[in-house]
Input
Amino acid sequence: MSGRASGAAPRGSSTGVYQRLFAHGLSRLDAEAAHRQGFAALRLGSPLVRAAAPLADRLLGVDPQPVEAMGLRFPHALGLAAGFDKNAEAVDALAALGFGHVEVGTVTAQAQPGNPRPRLFRLVNDRAVVNRMGFNNEGAAVVAARLADREQRRRRLPAGSGPVLGVNVGKTKVVPEDDEAAVLDDYATSTRLLAPYADYLVVNVSSPNTPGLRHLQAVERLEPLLRHVRLTADRATVEAGLRDTPVPLLVKIAPDLADDDVLAVGDLALAVGLDGVVATNTTISREGLRSHPAEVEELGAGGLSGRPLRTRATEVLRLLRDRVGPGLTLVGVGGIGSAEDARERLAAGADLLQAYTAFVYEGPAWPRRVVAGLADTGAGEGV
Ligand SMILES: Cc1cc2nc3c(=O)[nH]c(=O)nc-3n(C[C@H](O)[C@H](O)[C@H](O)COP(=O)(O)O)c2cc1C
Output
């Protein structure tokens, strides 16, 4: 494996600077405040970041291996997982840091504030994060308007340039989970508004922070939901003359599903003609952590992400690939922290990869390092 990809950062490098900043400042700041500040800096510095991207690629020797999947051409396998850019405010700046695709959201039909703060925590000894954000977002109409603006600006750029844009939709909290018609309606509203701007669409039924949401993973609930979203997306795009082909549709699942339930989702995805599965979301498990149990307990409920998730997320990916064969695109996410982890997930059957927590710990140079590390061995080629 490339030393570039996994080795300790040299003192003068941007990674070294970030790690010292993290150790002495960012990690002591409230995690959500740190996220907000980092995000604001990224948006502010966006023109600079974008202008510097080709030079950064050259310096790191990034030679990305494109991936063809779901009828799309991804610049390379690694993307940014949902939850970082919930409102699609910094898609192109994030891509300029080296992500080949950016999945925005989760977006819900109605705007909502999410859970009370604090709701985002780091477990530094585990290179992990616990969050119970609860789908805080500006709502589908606002996000759709922002994406429409972006599309206008992008018309001036050569076709096919820039990142692949994924849009992740979820249930509005106030919609009762047991009112099936209302749930279908809610997902249909966000789908109708957002599908026209999405290169691919993800139905999120796996966040632990919206009460009852994960019950929608049961096949008898999931099947009508996925069929309804499929129909709605087609009406809003192909039938409306906005696209020639249906927008690729995926479902995102939890690592806490029993193996049999993972397989059932795989079967269902094939049966309803989905394009892929994103595996996995965060876990409610707290097993195998290095952090002191009292520290973990004090944080309370939420989804755990990062290194402790790696083994189970890989297992779920492998189970799915063995079950569905080559017919579905599998997006591997959960605990990917290095090029070596990325390679392992590709070997387990992933076509595409995503990460969130390692990016938070490792900083803005991390995506490019992983992509450079993947290209070193040709991994990602032909996936
Ligand atoms: C703070 C935070 C917020 C998240 N929000 C969302 C979300 O809104 N929708 C979603 O599908 N996943 C969300 N996720 C889950 C990530 O997309 C990803 O599936 C998970 O963190 C595992 O990847 P990682 O170990 O690389 O972080 C969130 C994760 C974190 C840490």
Q: What stands out?
A: Residues 81-83, 86, 105-106, 120, 129, 131, 133, 135, 168, 204, 207, 252, 281-282, 305-306, 309, 333-336, 355-358 surround flavin mononucleotide (CB under 6 Å). The CA atoms of residues 177 and 212 lie 6 Å apart.
